[in-house]
Amino acid sequence: MKRSDFSGRKSKLREVGNRDGEDRISSLPDAIISHILSFLPTKAAVATSVLSSRWKFIWTSVPNLCFDDRLFSECEDTPALTRFENFVNRVILLCDYSVNINKFSIICQKFSGLASLKFWVSYAITRRVRELELSINGYNNVELPDSICSSKTLEVLKLKSDFVFKVPSSGMCFPCVKILHLEMLYPKNNMVEKLFTICPLLEDLSIKGIIRGFGSVTKFNISSRTLKKLTINLEDYNDLEDKHQVVVRAPNLEHLHIRDSTPVPYVVHELHSLSKVVFSIVDVFMEDFDPPDADCVVQFLKGS
Amino acid sequence: MAIMYALKSSDNEIFEVEQKVIEQSETIKKMIEDGAATGEIPLQVSSKTLAKVLEWCKQRQHKTVENENDDNKGKRKKERDEDDDIKEWENKFSDELKADKDVLFDLLLASNYLDLPALLSFLCQLVADMVAGKMPEEIRRMFNIENDFTPEEEKAITAEHGWAFQP
User: Which residues of B touch A (CB under 8 A)?
Assistant: First the structure.
């Protein structure tokens, strides 16, 4: 029987089994090629446009846009940061607006002072982004558009830097976000006291931060009926007598992982579903910690 | 007794497969639900490729069944060992495909046709890893892509997309 063939076009060659020298990759359907390109950094995906005419525009429908400034280096005429920004802007200009963005990530570790970040995030949200990851170097507060709080497509949000956005004073924030990972340099009360109590679908929350109280005690307030996994990793450099406070109310929590530089009491309510707890106290100055103190914190957890 | 289905490859070879294994294919699952899977199921996939597809499906099925049967006790260690086993199996599977790119592309088309999302993603990742970090000329050579741009066109596209090639 004749071999059936998917691509049809080159069936003669394939019938005799001599497929040496055949360009199989270019005869794949566009959707598969886009899928392959979605696993590459966007810079590499765009670069495939030069392979042949078949490849010229395929990258424009790639659902993942991942930008990393570490792939850009200084050259004589233009500073690398400018070239990084130009690159992102060019991609945004050329790629297919009708394709929903599955993942949008901006990693800017080498440079600081990105001018267009707010615009890029806003763009990703209008293209119905599902996963957003921003990792921005620097101690400046990075401003994000208000639309991030109300996006109905955003399910995964990973922010690394101190971001500023308007946490809605009433109602909810991040209506569809299930995974929220925040890495903050200096968490501020106006963010951490309220935000983790108003995310309606939150399942996996990770908070990493270095605390400097700036005169007031930092209070983390986490309250969610949907939360299953909670990871907290804090270092407290506060000079105040009172260290940070953490209150957790999560009746469906299954995994709790706490790492803290200070043996502060964690007030945990309504743990009905917990199956795994990891609690470690790590002295930031690398001195050995006195085991009884650690015990005391664990005791506190058990008793609650 | 497990329900078995007979799959017929495009070169007329018959594969007897458990329902649970082959139901990972959304295409076949829908056929079964639709009552269209009586007798031999004719597939537009060669026997060589179909054998590979089933190898993948059986490995995945094996993994799910074991996880279901586990109780919590000692699960973590077992999971770790299993993860290592799976990694090893996947590495071997990848190496074979990298060595024979025709099988790789046949399998890509088959995973698309049979709607096997996990296999499709696995293979796309594999091809992406092969492309990553290579210059256009190396990619062309690896996959026999013919550069059909005229010198003028190539000059134009490199100028136009020059921003993508700068280091």
Answer: 10-12, 44-46, 72, 101-102, 105, 108-109, 112-113, 120-121, 124-125, 127-129, 131-133, 136, 139-140, 143-149, 153-154, 157-158, 161, 163-167
